[in-house]
Design a protein that fits this description.
Helix 9 packs parallel to helix 11, helix 12 packs antiparallel against helix 13 and helix 19 (386-395) crosses helix 21. This protein has a six-stranded mixed β-sheet with strand order 7-6-8-9-11-10, with helices on one face. The chain folds into three domains: 1-138, Serine Threonine Protein Phosphatase 5, Tetratricopeptide repeat, CATH 1.25.40; 276-370, Rossmann fold; 386-549, Glycogen Phosphorylase B (Rossmann fold, 3-Layer(aba) Sandwich), CATH 3.40.50.2000. The chain has helices spanning 24-36, 39-52, 57-69, 73-86, 91-103, 107-120, 125-137, 141-154, 159-171, 175-188, 193-205, 209-220, 227-243, 247-254, 296-302, 306-312, 327-333, 365-368, 386-395, 448-458, 474-483, 494-501; strands at 276-277, 287-291, 317-322, 338-341, 357-360, 403-408, 437-441, 486-490, 504-510, 521-522, 525-533. Helices cover 45% and strands 10% of the residues.
């Protein structure tokens, strides 16, 4: 989940008067059903009204709201789109269309619709609230802050406006100010649960995990929240339990992470399958599909459970879907698995159906890692190609008298909310006090200018090869890592990759749920040593502590 803070789209109430005709009775009855949550009955009546008056945008908007109540977001999207088509100056229709696009995680389209609405009326409160959601999803944090302030100026007693302000401040790492905004939102409207959810998230970000758990558990006892909101709250709560090492409850709540009301930055996946989800108590099955759901780093860490699955289902054919870059690596590690790269259609649906049951890879820890002791025998070790090992042995032969240290100092994607998790290359100059150390670049992406400047400033050379694609050629990357003495990295996929090669690895990290309550080692790869920085500090503060651990060659 990272630092994602949840705030949902805002749906505007229509102000259209009822038409003074015989349809009035149908409308009032349909509205009554909508208010009572009898959505199917309301849909039937609004559909009849639409058949009679197909050019009335108000009916399409109201039917769309019924679809939202049933979490039929695609149907709601079609009806709101029709309402906009019928009246493209109607701010309610435009704002609601944008809000539904947000629910469907179609942020760029939502941005265009809501910006158009604000061209019509720059002070339209509802469009301002919804476009704040969009800017958060698109990592446009500073614009999100500007929009939140404008919304408060227009309506200074609106809880949702302060909620958006808190979100924008949190994205910019103004955590204490963010907390105050959420408290203000809650004081303005104690029934507005999204402010409480966000207050929980910011308390967690501030390291107050027990307070977070208390707030979430109290919220679960709130009688006004819906079943979907309960699932979303439990999912968010899972990270707090995992953070303090209560793995059983944490993994159980983590399973609620597929609810479609969870924002795109936090939801585990929105993929759908015809096949049933596998229950681990069912062992007599023919073919099981294990599918990837998140980024490469999470996939590697959750993948440490695959050996347990292999042993648990000895007589079952296992299809493993993985990142295309990992296919050959996993084929060598699990020779009896049918390993396939992820290939899906435009709706993220898998293109084959030759399996009986399915399970996301992130759900394996709930079966095989319910206690920290379950991690201690986790000794995954990649099988590296011999020809590539020889290739990098030859390339590094001129430096055999040096201590070869691979470094990765940041992610390929940077934003203000994540900067404390990463370092600048200049921070690493502390390590060159040992003249026997030779840096080897493991940083992927556009970094050549950084390296050239670092070399010039410190009169040294960082080893790198123009023909090595560190992002896409993982086969060569793990061969390089196996060939060097140490790896020092921030929290990127390099950490598990290096850990699984068996090379001594040091991880510079802030407190994170993926640590599962541990401070000195990474449970997913027990040979990875960790240095955890304080919440208000960059991980760079611990670079100087690394030197004693990399002062020798690995065979010394």
């Amino acid at each position: 989940m990272g630092d994602v803070i949840q705030h949902p789209p805002f749906f505007m109430k229509n102000k259209n008067p009822y038409p003074e005709n015989v349809a009035n009775i149908f409308i009032k009855k349909a509205e009554k059903y909508l208010t009572e949550g009898k959505y199917e009955s309301a849909i039937l009546l609004f559909s009849k009204l639409i058949n009679k008056t197909p050019n009335n945008q108000f009916y399409f908007q109201q039917r769309a709201k019924c679809h939202l109540g049933l979490e039929r977001f695609d149907d709601a999207l079609r009806d709101f789109a029709k309402a906009v088509e019928l009246d493209n100056k109607n701010l309610a229709a435009l704002s609601n269309f944008g809000a539904t696009l947000i629910r469907c995680h179609r942020y760029q389209e939502a941005k265009e619709i809501l910006e158009y609405a604000l061209e019509i009326d720059p002070n339209d409160f509802n469009s301002l609230i919804n476009i704040g959601n969009v800017y958060q999803a698109l990592n446009m944090s500073e614009k999100g802050l500007q929009i939140a302030i404008r919304a408060i100026q227009i309506n200074p007693i609106a809880a949702i406006a302060y909620n958006n302000l808190g979100t924008a401040l949190g994205d910019l790492n103004f955590d204490k100010e963010s907390k105050e905004a959420f408290i203000t939102a809650n004081n303005l409207d104690p029934t507005y649960i999204n402010a409480v959810i966000n207050l929980c998230n910011i308390e967690s970000k501030l390291g107050n995990h027990w307070e977070t758990i208390k707030l979430y558990e109290n919220l679960l006892n709130n009688k006004i929240i819906s079943a979907s909101e309960i699932e979303m709250i439990k999912y968010y709560l899972s990270f707090s339990y995992l953070m303090i090492g209560e793995l059983g409850k944490g993994w159980d709540y983590y399973e609620y992470g597929f609810n479609p009301i969870i924002p795109a930055g936090a939801i585990r996946s929105n993929r759908k399958f015809k096949q049933k989800r596998w229950n681990h108590n069912l062992k007599n099955i023919n073919r099981l599909f294990v599918w990837r759901e998140q980024g490469l780093g999470d996939e590697l860490e959750f993948g440490s459970c695959l050996a347990d699955l292999d042993s648990y289902l000895k007589d079952t054919e296992i299809i493993l879907e993985c990142d295309l870059r990992l296919v050959d690596i996993y084929k060598r590690l699990y020779p009896r698995f049918d390993v396939r790269g992820q290939i899906v259609d435009g709706n993220a649906n898998v293109l084959f159906n030759d399996f009986q049951y399915q399970i996301p890879i992130g759900s394996l820890p709930a079966i095989f890692r319910r206690d920290i002791e379950n991690f201690k025998n986790n000794q995954i070790k990649f099988i590296v190609r011999e020809d590539l090992l020889q290739k990098y042995k030859d390339r590094l032969s001129s430096y055999c008298d040096k201590i070869l240290v691979g470094i990765c100092w940041r992610s390929g994607t940077l934003n203000i909310g994540r900067n404390l998790h990463y370092t600048n290359l200049s921070d690493w100059a502390q390590l060159i006090t040992n003249k026997d150390i030779q840096f080897v670049n493991l940083q992927y992406g556009e970094c050549e200018r950084e390296i050239v400047d670092f070399e010039a400033a410190n009169c040294l050379k960082v080893l790198r090869w123009s023909d090595l694609d560190l992002k896409n050629n993982l086969e060569e990357l793990i061969a390089l890592i196996r060939s060097i003495d140490h790896v020092v990295t921030v929290a990127t996929a390099v950490a598990p990759l290096a850990g699984y090669t068996g090379t001594n690895t040091i991880l510079l990290i802030r407190e994170d749920w993926i640590m599962l309550g541990e401070k000195e080692w990474l449970p997913w790869s027990p040979n990875v040593k960790t240095f955890v920085s304080n919440l208000d500090e960059s991980v760079a503060v611990n670079i100087d502590k690394v030197l004693p651990l990399i002062n020798k060659k690995k065979n010394s």
